[in-house]
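Repro:
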Amino acid sequence: MNLAHKVHMGETLELIIRKNELNLSELALEVGVDRRTFYYWFKKAVLKESTIDKISRVIKSEDVTNSLKRNILDPCFDSKLGAFKDSKSDEFWKDKYLVLLERYTALLKMDHRA
């Protein structure tokens, strides 16, 4: 059971790349794709996990890699099983709430700057 992502994955990827001032041409070369492929990915609402993994392997910064995976891949999604975790523990929901709260705060800050 795979629900649609609430986050536009392509836009989030672009935001992370630009926020970390990564050179798109160099990144594309290292990933092994054309620079235009990144622009295509930026427009896609959902990206394959393999695409995110490919980009993450090239980026040397652990912070950027973790940010990619944390912000793009839904934290409820268990990629090994391809299904949502069947966990209703207090800890699971607390962590989910904190992730959503951080995303909400980031959106408010971005909106405030505009």
